[in-house]
Amino acid sequence: MSQVTENKVIAAPVPMTPLQEFWHYFKRNKGAVVGLVYVVVMIVIAVFANFLAPYNPADQFRDSLLAPPFWQDGGSMAHLLGTDDVGRDILSRLMYGARLSLLVGCLVVVLSLILGVVLGLVAGYFGGVVDSIIMRVVDIMLALPSLLLALVLGGNLRALHRQRLAGANLRGAPRTMCVSRAPRCWWRSTVTT
């Protein structure tokens, strides 16, 4: 009485692409998924504000100055979030304001990236004294607290948009400098050994 077993070929699992692997681990973190949904909704609202906003953000409704939101006494469905002191619809202003907020955020990232890469490449290419000076400035910038830097810039640069752009650029650029300078350190260590 012998038992015959068949050899079954089990297919190896298909390897995931980097994007599939990223999504596989990303979707496990519920907070990250909620954050992603929120960011996507904000981008959609900002891009399609012309179609989604109930009113032009500059239109003034003089008959309903400082109207409360619809869920409070005196509020109406005509202005879901109410109106401001000159009668402009707050919901429409928020939708159109999301455009400016996203523009400032993207502009800060791009300017930080450009400044950081250029200074990092200069430090890596020239090395020596130039590298030491630039990297000491980077060390000082990384040591400064973000809030303190924003307050100092706010005191010196009176315009709010300048403060936001300059402060964010100065905070983001040092990290980019370190990353763009790193290949030089690796290359020099392989050449000298």
From TrEMBL:
GO cellular component entries: plasma membrane
Ranges annotated as spanning the membrane: 32-53, 100-127, 133-154
Domain of life: Bacteria
Molecular-function GO terms, alphabetical: dipeptide transmembrane transporter activity
Ranges where the ABC transmembrane type-1 domain occurs: 98-193
Main location group: membrane
InterPro entries from the UniProt entry: BP-dependent_transpt_permease, MetI-like, MetI-like_sf, OppC_N
Gene3D superfamilies for this protein: MetI-like (1.10.3720.10)
Sorted UniProt keywords: Cell inner membrane, Cell membrane, Membrane, Transmembrane, Transmembrane helix, Transport
Localization annotation: Cell inner membrane; Cell membrane
Membrane topology according to the record: Multi-pass membrane protein
A Pfam entry, by short name: OppC_N
Keyword field contains Membrane: yes
Family: Belongs to the binding-protein-dependent transport system permease family.
PANTHER family: D,D-DIPEPTIDE TRANSPORT SYSTEM PERMEASE PROTEIN DDPC-RELATED, OLIGOPEPTIDE TRANSPORT SYSTEM PERMEASE PROTEIN APPC
Protein name: Dipeptide transport system permease DppC
